[in-house]
Design goal:
With 608 residues, this protein is α/β, with parallel strands linked by helices. Helices cover 64% and strands 10% of the residues.
Length: 608
């Protein structure tokens, strides 16, 4: 079920989320929860009850009865053996917990990454998605899964030790239970406190994302030149300061509430139990003589153990509730279902592609980006979509590749609606080069073939790099095409220019076996000579294949079998280059203007 953005005021199912978190950990590595449970029981029961209460009670009882030294010594030996044994168990389980924590982190990270790659492209244009994504990753970054296991084990073991301590005190005098009763109110108070902390942190998410964006941007190479040649840094710093100021206001908003909760919690967990118990124990011991020395010592030790147990439970309960609230974000993220769903059909060899009365509006937009678009591309045709920037050309590609689904109308692949096809198989039918190309901090070879490659695949990648016009540059590098792009992770990496990066990106198309090439401004960062050479190679590699060019440069359109001119989200004209020039319409106006501009540049170059 697709979930809406979560309102901080909505009730979050805390205990369901705790169970969800424990199941998630158990599925990935059950040793983590088991290890924490063993550690919790060995620490709480031994330290709070056996060591501080039971052992003291036994020893003082021996002294009260006047037993032999041998009895006292035997008790010490038993306690020593028990202590050493539990210490060994604790060391071993601590090692297991450390290893399994890393294993759970690895598996959950992989699951988040796998989920992220299935999300709709629409999510990346939605600020609410980034907030949700950040909160989901915070579960891992801040080890909330670790907190849940630790807190549950501490709470369970502390409750058991608390029950043992209370049982011991009750055996001495049931009246002491009256002074211990207020500690149970602490859990209710801490629950309310945790929800306030969660709401506070939820309100701060967007501000924290703005802060993180500014911190990240300042260190990125892509922005370094603009930072130093403009006033943009001051604008970012103003947003950074505004985010901090907003967080301060949020902290003030919740500060008084959290202070009151903490004060009341301390009153019920420490002041009333300690003062009441100490006073009554002193009364029994001094005035009524109904409490022995051993009983008096056990009562005083017990109240400290009760205080430690309740504080331990309250503290862990507080962290557990907070962690469970954050796990709601991880649940929302994992349970998100993409709008773009896969069909069952496998695409056959390409024969035709048709846009039939396609209208599209972006989710947050007030008006349509495309309006009633219709055209058809047949096998082997070279097709060009031209128009000014913002005309809707790139949106057509997003619809074609099902990054979005049409609002109205349909897109047909071989006469079948593209929604019926298996999504991955359908997208793999196309070879694509995008306008907003991106290369990655991996080797040049891996950037071209998009995975770790064999020697045979390296030969294919080399041929593709030659066809894109970048091989000479790459071959001159000390490690050739094994060189990592960017120096972010490798000091021996290489930083390429915008045009060189685009050539590497374009090489992916040359290296891929495809029937239908989609070229979205494939030469936007190239100079005219490099552009001409690339188009020559594109013409060669796309012989007998279907090609869809998208460009505001019309040099590619001249080579196309059919041209569609788009403006304002509508089809303005359609035909071949000669037909559109004869129409004396928008295409001729654009072509004449670009030709004139190019001739002027050429004359200026020759005069220089």
């Amino acid at each position: 079920m697709r979930r809406p953005p979560r309102d901080p005021n909505l009730k979050v199912p805390v205990f369901k989320n705790i169970i969800y978190a424990l199941k998630l950990v158990w599925q990935n590595d059950k040793r983590l929860l088991i290890g924490y449970m063993i550690n919790g029981f060995s620490a709480n029961i031994f330290m709070l009850y056996i060591q501080n209460i039971l052992f003291l009670k036994v020893l003082l009882g021996i002294l009260d009865k006047g037993s032999s030294f041998e009895s006292y010594l035997r008790t010490l030996v038993v306690f020593l053996v028990l202590s050493v044994s539990l210490m060994g168990v604790s060391c071993f389980t601590s090692y297991i917990v450390s290893a399994s924590t890393k294993n759970v982190l690895k598996k959950l990270n992989n699951r988040i990454f796998s989920k992220a790659i299935t999300l709709d492209v629409e999510c990346y244009e939605n600020p609410e998605f980034y907030d949700k994504y950040q909160r989901a990753t915070n579960v891992l970054a801040w080890s909330y899964y670790d907190f849940v296991c630790s807190c549950v084990s501490n709470i369970v073991s502390a409750i058991v030790s608390l029950a043992l301590v209370i049982g011991t005190v009750t055996a001495i005098n049931p009246v002491y239970l009256l002074f211990l009763a207020p500690v149970f109110l602490v859990f209710i108070i801490e629950s309310f406190k945790s929800k306030q902390v969660y709401k506070r942190d939820l309100e701060m998410t967007t501000n924290n994302r703005i802060k993180a964006y500014t911190q990240r941007t300042v260190f990125l190479k892509d922005f370094s030149k603009d930072m130093r040649t403009s006033n943009i840094f001051s604008v970012l710093m103003q947003r950074f300061k505004a985010a901090i100021d907003s967080n301060v206001e949020i902290l003030r908003k919740y500060g008084l509430k959290l202070f009151i909760f903490s004060t009341v919690s301390s009153l019920f967990s420490e002041f009333i139990p300690i003062i009441g118990t100490y006073a009554y124990a002193a009364y029994q011991f001094v005035y009524t003589n109904t409490l022995t020395v051993s009983g008096f010592s056990v009562v005083l030790s017990s109240i400290n153990a009760v205080r430690e147990s309740t504080m331990n439970i309250a503290r862990n309960f507080d962290m557990l509730v907070g962690s469970a609230l954050y796990f709601q974000n991880l649940r929302d993220f994992f349970e998100y279902e993409p709008k773009i769903t896969s069909g069952d059909k496998m695409p056959e060899k390409f024969e035709s592609l048709e846009f039939r009365n396609v209208t599209f509006r972006y989710p947050s937009a007030e008006k349509n980006t495309l309006e009633n678009i219709s055209f058809k591309i047949d096998k082997g045709e070279t097709f060009a979509l031209v128009g000014v920037n913002g005309a809707g050309k790139s949106t057509l590609i997003k619809l074609l590749l099902r990054f979005y689904d049409v609002t109205n109308g349909e897109i047909l692949y071989n006469g079948i609606n593209i929604k019926e096809y298996n999504l991955d198989a359908y997208r793999n039918s196309f070879g694509a080069v995008f306008q907003d190309y991106r290369n990655f901090a991996i080797s040049v070879y891996e950037n071209v073939v998009c995975h770790e490659c064999s020697d045979e695949e390296k030969a294919i990648a080399e041929k593709a790099l030659r066809q894109s016009g970048i091989w000479k540059k790459i071959a001159s590098l000390p490690k050739g095409a094994d060189t990592v792009l960017t120096r972010e992770f490798d000091k021996n990496g290489i930083g390429l220019s915008g045009g060189e990066n685009q050539k590497v990106s374009a090489a992916r198309l040359f290296a891929k076996d495809f029937e239908f090439a989609v070229l979205d401004e494939p030469s936007s960062a190239l100079d005219p000579i490099a552009e001409y050479k690339m188009y020559e190679n594109l013409i060669e590699v796309t012989k007998n294949k279907t090609v869809l060019y998208i460009s505001h440069r019309l040099s590619s359109a001249v080579l196309s079998d059919k041209i569609i001119v788009i403006g304002g989200g509508r089809v303005l004209e359609e035909g071949s280059h000669s037909e559109l020039m004869a129409k004396d319409g928008k295409y001729k106006e654009m072509f004449t203007l670009q030709a004139s501009s190019y001739n002027n540049e050429k004359e200026e170059t020759e005069n220089d």
